[in-house]
Backbone:
């Protein structure tokens, strides 16, 4: 993999979703201790990205549990600690804000 | 004659019905409000009930008497919305055809989505305060709670009035101090967020206020289940918080009929709307307001109040064959809404956090609720049995505004 710079915010979330590709995702995941990304990981990451590009905001954990096809319990196994946050980071989209 | 049906006679439904009634002639518009009961609860008052600062019966009034003359009130449960045929079906089989529909059905409390929440221990060591019944049961339990670990747990966002769990913490801290038992009680706030609140500056300030009062904060705690028999909360990633008394704010979702109505809701059951026009994506003559709408703003009476202006104008436009205008900007502030068309708008003298890059632009967020000055007022109000009698009629309270 070629080394390449991407723009991130203070917490490591990419600020330009167009700089993202699957290699970038794998690199961010590896840095967070997830390697390799399995099909189940990808299912979540791709769902997040699609939702974000469609709606402009990152889905919450509950939306993931209901609509991504991966139940909440498994989400926590795939993306330890904060699945929505970690999956968003890997998907190259801003941090989910939860709600306001 | 056009027919408007409004589902829900709470804060939003009542404001919108009265506003539309004022603005239009009775011959022009037939207005119907449907609600499943005739009990309008002043929900902000629920926060005070557990501490005996408010009597449950004092925060409930008949819904129909809040509605202006010339508005039909139907007490019935909505089964579903058939937006293709422009009709609302009630569970008793009746149908209400409409030219425009306004969904103001609020947020439903989904206790059952958290395993064990209403299982063993419910009403003994596990409580909530988002309904009159729950707040009253908690009041009875708090009255003789004098030692142990009290955990306030917010299961998941979004919730109505996102600062309410924090306010609850501050009030319970005060309540226990007043009773001289604070030293024997440990208080913890458990939240799925990574800080005390969603917004950085507010979160920092609130975090400091918790620390200052000796209240513990357990962040990124996503409650998976409640074990009332063993008295512990268990997160999805298997962390445990033991408790003697748990005060749990349940998961919120849209009213169940929304899910049954084709095309109306998003995953969480809130009505999928355009965030600026408040028109539902399901049909051009359907709108939503307040907690029922899937808006990226707080589920609060103040937001609902601001939305009403845009909504009424757009309903009238659409009925007149025009396009709606995207005038709602997510505005929410510290507006203590009475539920009875009376309200108190409190302006705090404190800095508003600009929220760069956040929808829709830097604005007064729920931060306005967070100034210490409000807490002082709550404290003051807490000592004043006249709270409702002064606040609800919208009279000035000395030192406020
Ligand atoms: C503890 C607490 C404290 C709060 N504090 C504040 C505060 O300080 N400031 C603030 O601005 N906001 C506060 N809020 C939030 C505020 O009360 C709500 O945001 C506001 O009431 C929302 O209005 P609404 O019209 O959307 O919903 P509601 O007022 O809840 O009305 C919804 C109505 O729809 C009806 N309905 C639902 N389903 C059906 C059906 N199938 N058939 C018929 N009718 C149905 C319900 O019966 C209900 O009457 C607080 C809320 C709580 C719970």
Residues:
């Amino acid at each position: 993999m070629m080394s390449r710079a991407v723009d991130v915010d203070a917490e490591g979330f990419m600020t330009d979703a167009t700089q993202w590709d699957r290699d970038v995702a794998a690199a961010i995941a590896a840095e967070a201790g997830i390697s390799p990304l399995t099909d189940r990981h990808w299912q979540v990451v791709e769902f997040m990205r699609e939702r974000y590009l469609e709606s402009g905001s990152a889905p919450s954990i509950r939306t993931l549990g209901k609509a991504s096809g991966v139940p909440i319990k498994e989400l926590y196994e795939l993306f330890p600690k904060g699945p929505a946050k970690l999956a968003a980071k890997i998907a190259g989209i801003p941090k989910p804000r939860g709600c306001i | 004659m056009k027919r408007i049906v409004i589902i829900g006679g709470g804060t939003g439904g009542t404001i919108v019905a009265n506003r539309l009634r004022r603005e239009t002639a009775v011959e022009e518009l037939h207005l119907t409000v449907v609600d499943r009961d005739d009990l309008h609860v002043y929900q902000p008052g629920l926060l005070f009930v557990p501490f005996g600062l408010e009597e449950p019966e004092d925060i409930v009034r008949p819904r129909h008497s809040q509605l202006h003359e010339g508005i039909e009130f139907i007490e019935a449960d909505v089964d579903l919305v058939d937006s293709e045929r422009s009709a609302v079906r009630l569970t008793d089989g009746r149908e209400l055809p409409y030219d425009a529909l306004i969904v103001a059905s609020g947020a439903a409390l989904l206790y059952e989505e958290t395993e064990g929440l209403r299982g063993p221990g419910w009403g003994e060591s596990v409580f909530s305060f988002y309904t009159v019944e729950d707040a009253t049961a908690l009041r009875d339990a708090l009255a003789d709670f004098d030692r142990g670990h009290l955990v306030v747990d917010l299961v998941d966002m979004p919730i109505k009035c996102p600062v309410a769990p924090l306010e609850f913490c501050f009030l319970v801290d005060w309540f226990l101090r007043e009773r001289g038992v604070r030293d024997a009680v440990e208080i913890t706030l458990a939240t799925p967020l990574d800080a005390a609140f969603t917004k950085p500056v507010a979160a920092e300030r609130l975090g400091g206020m918790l620390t200052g009062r000796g209240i513990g904060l357990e962040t990124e705690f996503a409650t998976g289940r409640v074990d009332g028999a063993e008295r512990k909360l268990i997160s999805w990633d298997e962390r445990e918080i033991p408790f003697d008394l748990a005060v749990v704010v349940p998961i919120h979702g849209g009213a169940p009929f929304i899910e049954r109505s084709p095309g109306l809701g998003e995953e969480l059951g809130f009505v999928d709307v355009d965030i600026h026009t408040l028109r539902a994506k399901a049909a051009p003559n359907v709108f939503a307001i307040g907690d029922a709408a899937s808006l990226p703003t707080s589920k609060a009476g103040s937001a609902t109040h601001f939305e009403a202006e845009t909504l009424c104008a757009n309903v009238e436009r659409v009925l007149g064959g025009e396009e709606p205008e995207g005038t709602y900007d997510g505005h929410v502030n510290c507006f203590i809404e009475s539920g009875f068309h009376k309200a108190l708008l409190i302006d705090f003298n404190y800095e508003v956090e600009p929220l760069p890059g956040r929808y829709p632009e830097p604005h007064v967020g729920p931060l306005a609720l967070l100034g210490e000055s409000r807490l002082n007022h709550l404290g003051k109000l807490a000592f004043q049995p006249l709270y409702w009698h002064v606040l609800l009629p919208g009279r000035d309270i000395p030192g406020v505004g």
Q: What stands out?
A: The CA atoms of residues 7 and 19 of chain A lie 8 Å apart. The interface with chain B takes residues 57, 60-63, 66-67, 72-73, 75-76, 80-82, 85, 97-100 of chain A (CB under 8 Å). Residues B 7-13, 34-37, 43-44, 46-47, 77-78, 104-106, 130, 160-161, 164, 255, 257, 290-292, 299-302, 304, 335-337 surround flavin-adenine dinucleotide (CB under 6 Å). The domain at 17-91 of chain A is CATH 1.10.10 (Arc Repressor Mutant, subunit A).
